[in-house]
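Following up on my earlier message about flavin-adenine dinucleotide. Here are the inputs again, as you asked, copied directly from the submission form:
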Amino acid sequence: MEYDYLIVGAGLFGAVFAHEATKRGKICLVIDKRDHIGGNCYTETIEGINVHKYGPHIFHTNNKEVWDYVNALVEFNRYTYSPVANYKGKLFNLPFNMNTFYQLWGVKTPEEAKAKIDEQRKEFSYINEPKNLEEQALVLGGRDIYEKLIKGYTEKQWGRPAAEIPAFIIKRLPFRFTFDNNYFNDRYQGIPIGGYTKLFDKLLERCEVRLNTNYFNSQSELDALAAKVVYTGPIDLFYNYQFGALDYRSLWFEHELLNIDNYQGNAGVNYTEAQVPYTRIVEHKHFEYGVQPKTFISREYSKEWQRGDEPYYPINDDRNNKRYNKYKELVEKESKYIFGGRLAEYKYYDMHHIIENVLKLFKK
Ligand code: FAD
Ligand code: UDP
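Thanks, got it. Here's what our run produced:
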């Protein structure tokens, strides 16, 4: 065997795994079917702007160990994500906070805001245990917030009625009675200065990496090279869809380089009405306070995944979770293969979860 580990996928799970294994004297071969490292976190520098090619990535965590880990590799800036919502031409701050409540209803104090929200929620007091995202959102914030800031965005993003989407997804967003537009509650937050690809260059600096290499084009030859295989691609594909395909949401982007220096004054503007076909516009330079003469924007569209598309988001509803659990039973019987990451575990992981998971594996 030439290698201790063959690592399928140079995304975050694969790269952190490779880094940790290499540190312990193991020899790793990392492959990726794409022509670059970094998976969905990959950034590419265009006109001096670090473009988040697969959607905006903001690093945030409450875990000091994870924060120290990434900061030991690259320097992070003090960026705080504060997207703005555009609903029918009107702008609202996100996440839901005193600024938003003022913009919606003119309420100026937390007491006034709470009274307004209680009034908005009253008609839904019959919902004891919210069974889906729609019920959860109505119970949390009432009708105005749901209709102006949640329903349209959510249904575009997931391609399903909000009543068919799991409730936990909306609980990702803070709801607070302070004038604080920070999208996350976590203690630590920032963006790697110079873009995420720098982080991956560091993670993989001592490993052999082969790009443009699809594992399934020569699985048995590749498997024969290593004692163990770490697989970070879609789990259903690994098992040849034997229990059926899992559903994913896919994305596509309309990227545009503009000859102006500032298009929207913010990294993220969400379009929360159903009529605008994209979910959001990202202006990448603002993640790093860029002052370049040009600007680069991406309109983000969501679509149902079909074979051949890039899977982005697992759809963790009951039907898919049940199907995934069947695959998981097979996973548990494997001895040569290790499965990890958003696609192989079919979980809506953020970056900090992935790092935590890999570090935990190495502590075992
Ligand atoms: P991936 O990044 O998907 O890496 C898997 C890699 O495996 C890919 O490079 C793929 O090409 C490769 N691969 C798959 N199949 C094969 C094969 N057959 N052969 C060879 N290679 C293969 N997280 C945050 O913390 N903050 C955010 O702001 C944030 N924003 C996000 C925005 C979007 C639009 C998306 C989609 C995700 C976001 N995330 C965010 C989540 C973050 O992207 C993931 O947690 C992280 O990238 C998962 O890493 P991974 O290694 O599991 O998967
Ligand atoms: N969401 C919304 N309106 C917004 C932003 C988010 O209703 O303006 C909902 C939507 O259902 C989304 C969920 O909140 O899927 C989680 O949002 P987040 O920004 O965490 O999604 P991600 O970064 O994973 O795309």
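One observation from looking it over: The chain has a mean pLDDT of 97. Hope that helps, and feel free to reply on this thread.
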